[in-house]
Structure formats: structure tokens, C-alpha cells
Design goal:
Blueprint lengths: L4 H18 L2 H8 L3 H8 L1 H20 L1 H19 L4 H33 L4 H24 L4 H22 L22 H31 L4 H20 L1 H8 L1 H21 L3 H15 L2 H12 L4 H16 L2 H11 L2 H6 L2 H9 L17
């Protein structure tokens, strides 16, 4: 538990910051005076920040150590979020770009902290660390629904979240020892971007469908509950929490599941759970069933990224920091057009269609599952 505490608290506080912002997107959209397609384009600024941060993420972590990098970049992200709730469109785009930039560097640092603990102790903590991200999502979504129902403004809510994050980072700084200095100085030669090899590309294809569903729930799930199912802010917060409960329970047991069933089974089970959840969500216009559907989706997307991280660390070549940066780069490039595309579909077709178009990508994740253990994808073959 002592080894797990620092990464767990970092993931938890990061999730509080993230979900308190995204559950208030309807209010932020209204204050910006833009439609869903415009919001989707504005949200694109964060992936652009991610793209520009990736050449630096591995190098900064190697230079500063993951511990110090995480404890610097997460408070910067926190300080940006209150401004996102009050600035006009241009200011929102700039701040969201910076949010994506610093959050990308933090994500690499947090995953390296967990991976380093696994390598030093021989105990799996990556899944449980990500599990506390889900616990933070649960706590944050419930608090956000309560605060929205009490007419607390998004600015005040994000200010409270910022204070919590900074306090958590100060505590982690106080209780954790310094990381050892790197054995060799970082190599600054070569390409600015760490290009992915074939293995990392296949890993990204494997989890692509699951990752974009998770992003779709973050971006458009609250809109679906409020507009399609007519849920009030408090009920929407509770239903949204079902997604985080499913994700949290799965991640907290993820290390045990990895040992018991193996990565291939987990990827396939994840894809099936997500597909069933999407079908249930759009086919049954019921608040109760929507909660069950979001729970299934949460279970399904929970292990996608950590399976990608663990597979990359186990099978990638070169420095772990560079492999993780290459993984993030490839996933970002493959999903960069998704927020505006889904925003266009939500605005000009329907919110139902926004989720239905994701099903073929989920099927691709199911078929690519063998990549998790270094095997070839199991594409269906036509029998004659």
C-alpha cells in the first residue's frame, strides 16, 4: 500500500480535475455561445497540445525524473481549468491547448512512476493506480452533479478542484523520496518525435476502438443524458457515475484479471462489454438502463490503455519513456479528428448516431486482441 499511495493519489486528483471540467461542458458550451460542432472543434485544441508535447515528454521525464515532472505539470493543468470556464472561445482554445500540452507530459510521468514501482518491487500496481483514476471519476462526477444542482458555477467548482489537486501534489512531494538520477544523460540526437515501430502501431490499432469510446463518453455522455434522456443535472451526475463505477471496479481488479485470464481474453471481453453497453444505451431510452449501459461501457474501456502501456513496456524497444511517448503520439494522431467528427454528427444527425458509429471500431479491437501477447491479429477468414 505504501508503494501504491503516491501514484494512486496522483491519478485520483487528476481524475477529480478532469471530470469536474467535462461534466460541466453543457454550461461551458452555453457560456461560449457555440453549438456542438463548434465545441467539438474547440476540444480539438487539446490533442494539438498533446502533439506538440510528445517530443518533449520523454526527455523532460528523463531530465527531471517522473516524480518531479508529475508534481510540476499537474498543478499547472489545475491552474488552467478555472480560466476554461469563463474565457471566450479564443481564450478557451488557448487554455485547452495548454491543458492538453501539460497533461500529456504528466500522463507519461504518472505511467512511468507506476511502471517503475512494478520493476523495482515485482508487484503489479499499474492497474490499481489507474483504478484510482476511476475512483476519482466517481467522486468527481457525484460531486459535480450535486454542485450543478445547487447552482454552483463551473468557475467556483474548478477553483475548488484546483485547490484539492495542489494540496494532493504537495502531500505526494512531502511523502515520496527523490528518484535516483538517470544513469546516462538523455540523448538529444535524432528526431524530435519518437516514431512508433510496428509493434506500437499494432498496439494502438488494438485499443483504438475502446479508447475513442471512452473519449466519446467523456465528451458527449453528459449531453446524451441531459438532452436525449432528459435527466436533470443531479440524476445525470449519478448515471454518469455508473460509468466510473464500472471502470473503477474493473481497474482495481485489473492486475488480478491480467494474471488469471491473460491479455487476449481481457481485450476481447472489453470489446464485447463496450458493444453491449452502446447497444443498450441507444436502444432502450430508460434512465435505469442507461445507468446499466454506462456501467458496461465503463467495464469495457477500463483496461484498454493500461493494457497498451503494459504491452508497450514489455515488448517495446529502447527507453520506456520514449516507447510511451511513441504510444501516446500514435494514439493521438489516430484519434485527433474524432472530437470534431462526433461533434458534427451530434449536431447534424443525432446523439444516438454519435455512439452507433463507434461499433465498427470496437469490432476491430476485438479482432486485434492477439497483439496483446505478441501474436498476429485474428482476422476472420472466408471459408470456401
Amino acid at each position: 500500500m505504501k508503494n501504491l499511495l503516491p501514484p494512486a493519489l496522483l491519478y485520483f486528483s487528476n481524475a477529480i480535475l478532469f471530470i469536474s471540467l467535462f461534466t460541466r461542458l453543457p454550461a461551458i458550451q452555453a457560456s461560449l455561445g457555440i453549438d456542438k460542432a463548434g465545441l467539438g472543434l474547440a476540444l480539438l485544441s487539446a490533442p494539438v497540445g498533446t502533439f506538440l508535447a510528445l517530443p518533449l515528454a520523454g526527455r523532460i521525464n528523463d531530465r527531471l525524473t517522473p516524480r518531479l515532472t508529475a508534481l510540476v505539470t499537474l498543478p499547472i493543468c489545475a491552474l488552467l481549468t478555472p480560466a476554461l470556464t469563463i474565457l471566450p472561445v479564443a481564450g478557451f482554445v488557448i487554455c485547452f491547448f495548454l491543458f492538453g500540452f501539460f497533461r500529456t507530459i504528466f500522463d507519461v510521468a504518472a505511467n512511468m512512476i507506476s511502471a517503475g514501482i512494478e520493476q523495482r518491487t515485482g508487484r503489479k500496481v499499474l492497474s490499481r493506480s489507474h483504478g484510482f483514476w476511476s475512483v476519482g471519476l466517481l467522486a468527481g462526477s457525484l460531486c459535480s452533479g450535486f454542485l450543478a444542482e445547487k447552482a454552483v458555477t463551473p468557475f467556483v467548482q474548478q477553483t475548488l478542484a484546483t485547490g484539492f489537486v495542489i494540496a494532493a501534489c504537495l502531500f505526494v512531494f512531502w511523502v515520496t523520496p527523490k528518484d535516483p538520477a538517470p544513469e546516462t544523460p538523455p540523448d538529444r540526437k535524432g528526431s524530435a518525435y519518437v516514431l512508433p515501430d510496428r509493434t506500437i502501431v499494432l498496439i494502438c490499432i488494438m485499443v483504438f476502438g475502446l479508447c475513442i469510446v471512452e473519449g466519446a463518453v467523456y465528451d458527449w455522455g453528459i449531453f446524451f443524458l441531459r438532452e436525449q434522456l432528459k435527466a436533470d443535472p443531479a440524476i445525470a451526475g449519478v448515471l454518469y457515475a455508473a460509468f466510473t463505477v464500472g471502470m473503477g471496479l474493473t481497474r482495481l481488479s485489473g492486475d488480478m484479471l491480467r494474471d488469471s485470464f491473460g491479455s487476449i481474453v481481457l481485450v476481447r471481453a472489453s470489446a464485447v462489454s463496450v458493444a453491449l453497453g452502446i447497444i443498450l444505451l441507444v436502444a432502450m431510452p430508460s434512465l435505469t438502463l442507461a445507468g446499466a449501459a454506462l456501467f458496461l461501457i465503463g467495464c469495457g474501456v477500463a483496461l484498454a490503455f493500461l493494457l497498451a502501456v503494459s504491452t508497450t513496456i514489455a515488448r517495446g524497444k529502447g527507453r520506456p519513456s520514449e516507447n510511451l511517448a511513441a504510444l501516446s503520439l500514435t494514439l493521438m494522431l489516430s484519434t485527433i479528428g474524432v472530437p470534431p467528427l462526433l461533434g458534427f454528427i451530434a449536431e447534424h444527425v443525432s446523439l444516438v448516431a454519435t455512439f452507433l458509429v463507434l461499433l465498427p471500431c470496437v469490432l476491430a479491437s476485438f479482432l486485434m486482441a492477439p497483439v496483446a501477447e505478441g501474436r498476429r491479429p485474428s482476422w476472420p477468414r472466408r471459408r470456401i
